[in-house]
Write a structure and sequence with these properties.
The protein has 433 residues and is mainly α. The protein folds into 2 domains: 201 residues, MFS general substrate transporter like domains (Growth Hormone, Chain: A, Up-down Bundle); 187 residues, Growth Hormone, Chain: A, CATH 1.20.1250. Helix content is 79%, strand content 0%. It has 17 helices and no strands. Helix 3 packs across helix 8 and helix 5 crosses helix 14. The longest helix is centred in the first third of the chain and has 34 residues.
């Protein structure tokens, strides 16, 4: 493939330059639809949780001391995650074969229909746990199809490729803002009108996302795979994935991060907050500051593209060691919050630059499968980390588990940065052939 020689300025000072990507028609339509559906998606888990617990209470079981509600909620949460894992690789193949827009449009319509049906059952007062499990599983299928297609569509949305980093920054900002706005709005709406209203609103937001996707005018590409089977497509995709050291090394790093650092932090952070920092309010502050750091960093990233984006992304990932290390050291709330702020900022930098490198250096006909392998590798070990954090803390102490994670993150980051394929990859280099 021809080398791309454009150089992106390290800094654009004018706001208009930083938002130039919104002048791209296809990206703007997609951004509006995606942001709208994101807010609905971030509201839905709160509504589902209270729908399950309210249903168990109403059935006389109990969401109270008996723990029945917690068991039912666990089933429903697992029913959403498992289909995502099972469908992800097939979703990558389908996205490369049919095109990202078609797959995402079908996914939005499926998830919108599921949420509308879920809302109807709740409003009618007839939503047993088995029906919630079935509906949430369908929701998970839609998410598993959507994720690889989402990773592959961005290059087609932006005609001026020098704006691709800004596109990823804005999409990352949308995700960060939705994680703050969505749950807060869901709590208020659920308390006032019940979970059915939230799920109906989520169905509407998927409709907005589908409408925006339907309006896109994207280049027509030859379908990948041809007459070959999906298994052969997956094998070919895996061969391409494994042939790129910068890709599989960073994916392995992220997978072990989720296992050893992030999962223990999410499980043991509230425990140490309750013990040392003042309880739920303190933990809420820590997570809120984390989100604020991501939003602030995303704003600062607009209009900036470092010469070695993969190296900068890997360096930014080191910041995730700070909140775990602060908790392990018994630091006070201000220090833990400061660590979370920097970690949130690092997460935005890392996510934006990693997505941009993937979209720039992987041929578009492979992006669906490459994204699927990357997401699966990054998150497959996360559930194991969530399950193991408590028992390990009971045996070795929560402080020790978090400290091991913080040290691991620093050591792994140093190793990854020492890899030439990561450290030396420059923006000016063209796509991998």
């Amino acid at each position: 493939m021809a080398m791309q020689t454009e150089r992106i300025p390290a800094r654009r000072r004018r706001l208009g330059d930083r938002l130039a990507v919104l002048g791209e028609r296809e990206f703007t339509w997609f951004f509006i639809g995606y942001t709208t559906s994101l807010i609905g998606s971030s509201m839905a888990p709160v509504a589902v949780a209270f729908a399950v617990l309210d249903g168990e209470d109403g059935a006389g079981g109990a969401g109270g001391a008996g723990g029945g509600g917690g068991t039912a909620l666990g089933w429903v949460m697992a029913a959403r995650i498992l289909p995502v894992v099972l469908v992800l690789l097939a979703g990558g193949v389908i996205a490369d074969r049919l095109g990202s827009r078609r797959v995402m449009l079908g996914s939005d319509l499926l998830r919108g229909l599921v949420q509308a049906l879920f809302a109807g059952l709740l409003a009618a007062g007839h939503a047993p746990v088995w029906s919630m499990v079935a509906l949430v599983a369908l929701w998970g299928v839609g998410e598993g199809l959507f994720m690889p297609a989402f990773g592959a569509i961005v290059p087609d949305l932006v005609r001026r490729k020098e704006l691709m980093a800004d596109a990823n920054t804005l999409l990352g900002l949308a995700r960060s803002v939705s994680t703050v706005v969505g749950p807060a709005a869901a709590g208020l709406v659920t308390a006032a009108w019940g979970p059915a209203t939230v799920l109906l609103a989520d169905a509407v937001t998927y409709g907005v996302g589908a409408f925006a996707l339907a309006r896109l005018r994207l280049p027509v590409r030859a379908a990948a795979g041809g007459e070959e089977s999906m298994i052969r497509d997956l094998r070919a995709g895996w061969s391409e994935f494994a042939s790129r050291p910068w890709l599989w090394i960073t994916t392995a790093q992220m997978g072990l991060f989720n296992l050893l650092v992030w999962a223990p932090f999410l499980v043991l952070g509230p425990l140490l907050s309750q013990r040392d920092l003042g309880g739920a309010r303190a933990w809420g502050l820590v997570m809120g500051v984390y989100g604020a750091g991501a939003v602030l960093s995303g704003l600062l990233m607009l209009g900036r593209a470092p010469a070695r984006p993969l190296a900068v992304a890997s360096a930014a990932a080191l910041a995730w060691a700070l909140p775990s290390g602060a908790l392990a050291a018994g630091a006070g709330l201000p220090w833990v919050a400061a660590g979370a702020l920097v970690a949130g900022a690092g997460s935005a930098v890392c996510g934006t630059l990693y997505n941009t490198t993937l979209q720039k250096w992987v041929p578009v006909e492979l992006l669906g499968r490459m994204t699927a392998f990357g997401v699966l590798g990054a998150f497959a070990l996360g559930p194991l980390g969530l399950a193991a954090a408590g028992p390990l803390a009971g045996r070795f102490g929560a402080d020790t588990v978090l400290l091991v994670g913080a040290v691991w993150q620093l050591a792994a980051g140093a190793v990854v940065l020492a890899v030439p394929a990561v450290r030396n990859r420059r923006w000016e280099e063209g796509p991998d052939s």
